[in-house]
From TrEMBL:
InterPro entries linked to this entry: ATP-dep_AA_Ligase, ATP-grasp, ATP-grasp_PylC-type
Domain ATP-grasp intervals: 113-303
Domain of life (superkingdom): Bacteria
One GO molecular-function entry: metal ion binding
UniProt name for this protein: ATP-grasp domain-containing protein
Keywords assigned: ATP-binding, Ligase, Nucleotide-binding
SUPFAM superfamilies (alphabetical): Glutathione synthetase ATP-binding domain-like (SSF56059)
Amino acid sequence: MLMIYIINTMKESEDYYKAFFREFDIKGNFQILQIAEDRDFSVSESGLTKYFLNQFELYDYLDRVINKNKKNIDNIRIVGTDEFDVDNLGFFREEYGIYGKKYEDSVLFRDKYRMKKQINFPSSDFHKIKSIAELVHMKNIKEKIVIKPLCGVSSKDVFVVQNNSEINDAMLNRNISDVLVEQYQEGGMFHTDGVVMRDTRRIICFASEYINNGLAYKENKPIGSVTLDYNSSLSSRLIKATELLLKQFPSSESYVFHAEWFVRGEDIVFNEVASRFGGGLICRCLRKKYGIDLVKLHLLSQIRDVDDRDIKLNESSTISGWIYVPQGENKEIESFLEQDIPSHINIISEKHHKKKGVQRKLSRSVDYISAYEIVQDSIRETRECLIKLAEITEKTINYKKNDKEK
């Protein structure tokens, strides 16, 4: 019988994992490993969840229990719910011979320089910088450049740079050899999400169009996306590009992916790809549009192969979309005013929360003050409604006045 250790960075409930095991008929026991600095106990009442003070303690425990049960290694699975865990779990799988994506397979999806050197596909100009002088020179010959960690995750610590002050902010406490610099791309940005199945190397893939782009949060703009109809011309082109791309990434196991693209007329330009499900409300919208839950397929792919039995495609005729509205830069929220939402906007879910203190530049694309998920009849209508919701939200946030404004 399988023993499955789940690194619960997403902090899903025990009931969530119980339902997941039932849905895919997984026979075995599981233990949830979770960092919870504010908890004064080590295990949950049920005994299914064990808490740790930090990541080191968690991985130390995992290493010891795997080593203790090496004789039953074929029945052990280790599952991560976040991209931060990809490399670490890959190491343990490789070291102990555990089923699942190994370290070398994982690192190609994390190391942006190796990723772009690996593939034969049109992409934006990119450079692994050797010195600050080279970085300043690039800034002077390009209107905008993007500075990102070589092995970053979830758009964290990515900077769009236009002047020396912003270069200084981007490079603060960072080694010059640890960054990749890319040409900033204006215009339409898209993402494809899906799963690669091991047995046939078949790819199940769905395309969506970003509202603004994946780095909009760096300019304090809303970020979101809308699903495309599966058989549309643009969707087919993006899916074909994704298939050609992923065939260049060797892997012995099933895995999920999130890839980003720019479309320039007839040209499709590759940005980057990650071995994870998409952020924001991407998975919820794909589930609404296509009936596919990529979060669960991501978990499943680390336990056993994903195959056709697990893919229950059921496309809706409507278009799903989501948007995150950020807090105003250098502003502190006092309250939300009452919103007047037009009746034709079909809101599936919404969430608002008041963050404490003054918001500086956002560090991640998933930071937001208001979030909406909607369903409409067309791509154009969905985009327009999401942008309208963002505008309404921005007008109904009551910010505290600073000394100059009083």
